[in-house]
Structures are given as structure tokens and as C-alpha cells.
Amino acid sequence: MLDNTVVLVLLGAGISLVTSVVVTTLHARQIRRAELRSGTRNSARNLTSAFIAERDGDSDKAEFLRDAELTVMSMTDRKTRERLTAVVRLLREHELPEVEQLSGVSSATSKRILCDHALDVLGAHLRADRLPEIPAEMRKMLSVEEEALSIHAGDAPKPLAPIEKSSVTARPRHTGSATAKSTPTPRKTTTKTPKSGTKPTGKSGRASAPATEEKEEKERESAFWDD
To answer: Do residues 145 and 93 touch, judged by C-beta distance below 8 A?
Structure first.
């Protein structure tokens, strides 16, 4: 009976300890999430005020970009952080002549478009809505950003790699004069029929010689018997 009581007490103490640890961990996680959510909302509000001031031209550009970049880095939502990072980066580069020429968007127009888009993103983040689409002008600036920065830095554009061709055997050029010189025209050979009364030559002459000798021998034999 005593042993069972001790086991039950130890079991109850273990359950209480595990429950206390789990509850403390979950409570600390909820507090952390609430603090992060509150900090993100405060960052979003601060960024909203900063982008409005930048759009209206009431803020110092260098200070605004520095504070905006630091505030964006502290935001927890990944998509919102990446979108606002791109906006801040383009606001730092939108006055470069290379960016204006390649994208076809003036610095004043691009500044207004970027600030408006940042405000739309921050509003969607505060409402927990889906982020808005990227404007066409911002897409153009993002597509030419790397090339514009390389040109501004003085780097020459990289030449395209030469296309490797397989080795080809050299062939003579087919021109009229070259063909006439290189390929002589074959001569026409005509066979002449031997005239009557001429002696056959070649193999036919050799073949007819034994026949003539046999004929002469037969004539001599017939003449001998006639005598």
C-alpha cells in the first residue's frame, strides 16, 4: 500500500512538472509572437509616414533611405519585407540617368510610383490582405537595374561568347572560269570501220592468220594427190 502511494505521488509530480513546462513554453511563444506582431505594426506605421513624407518631398533622402532600410529588415513577413526592400533599393537608384534611359521612366514619375506602391503594400500588410501586383513601370526598372548599375560603374557590356563551329574541309569555289580550267572536256573517240582491201589489225588479224595457213596446207595436199 505504501509503495503504491509513493508511485502515485511521483507520477503526479512528474505530470505537474511536464504540464508546467509546456504551459510556460507556449505562453512565452505567444508573448513573443504578440511582441513581434506589435513591433511589425509599429514598423509598418513608421514606414507609412516615411513614404508619405518622401512622396511629398518633405524628408531628407539619405536619412529616409537609411531609416527605411533598417525598419524593413525588422519586419517578420517575408513577402512584405522582400517587396519593400526592392522599393527602397529602386528609390536609391531611380535618379541615375542610366536607369531613366533604359526603363523610359523619369525620376519624378518613378519616385511617385514607388512610394504609392510601398503604401499599398503596407496597407495590405496591416489589413492582412494579399499583396498588390507590381506596377509595370517598377517591373521595367527591376529588369534593367543590373545593366544600368554596370553601365554607371563604367563596366563595358560583356561580349557574347563566340559560336564554335565544327571543322569543315575546304572545297574549291565553283566559278565558271575555274571549272573550265580544272575540268577539261573529254575528247570524243570515233571508231572507224576498216575499208575493204585493207588488212585487219589487232586481234582479228591474229585470229585470221592460222585459218589462212590451214587453207594453204589443204591446197598443197590436194595438189599432191592430183599429181
So the answer is: yes
